[in-house]
Amino acid sequence: MIQRQLDRREFRNYDVLKQQAIEAAEALKVAATAALLDAADRSDLIRYYVVRWFLLKKVLYVQYMVNKKIRSSVHEGDIHKQRNQARINADEVPILSYRQMWTVGQEEAEA
């Protein structure tokens, strides 16, 4: 109950949540790139950023799935359609791949 109250207060609707999650993920990409350039040991930093991207994707998926209004009005009560759209929404969160994170800065060093 408390979580729903907080969600309603912070996010007017799912579209606002989705937009803010995408913006936060973009900011994480910028921060990760900068942090990884200076890091001697990247493994802890990579883990840190992967967890944050995972949580952003997870919150989008879960919030879409628990929204009964979306299920009834958008997906005609079909939970399979709703689940598919929840996956699509979560996949819209931009991330850096493991490979990209491990090789940040190496492109300039090789040139």
List key phrases describing it.
111 residues, single chain, mainly alpha
Textual characterization of the structure:
By secondary structure, the protein is mainly α. Helices cover 78% and strands 0% of the residues. The longest helix is centred in the N-terminal third of the chain and has 25 residues. The chain has seven helices and no strands. The model has no long low-confidence stretch (mean pLDDT 91). Helix 2 runs antiparallel to helix 3 and helix 3 runs antiparallel to helix 5. The termini are far apart.
Brief account:
The protein has 111 residues and is mainly alpha-helical. Helices cover 78% and strands 0% of the residues. It is elongated.
Strands, helices and their partners?
Blueprint: H1 2-10, H2 14-38, H3 43-65, H4 68-73, H5 79-91, H6 98-103, H7 106-110
Helix pairs in contact: 2-3, 3-5
Indicate the mean pLDDT. Answer: 91
Measured between the Cα atoms of the first and last residue, the distance is 56 Å
Main β-sheet description: none
Which parts are unreliable, with pLDDT below 50 for 5 consecutive residues or more? Answer: none
Radius of gyration: 17 Å
Enumerate how many helices there are, as a single number: 7
Give me the secondary-structure category.
mainly alpha
Tertiary shape: elongated
What proportion of the residues form beta strands (DSSP E)?
under 5%
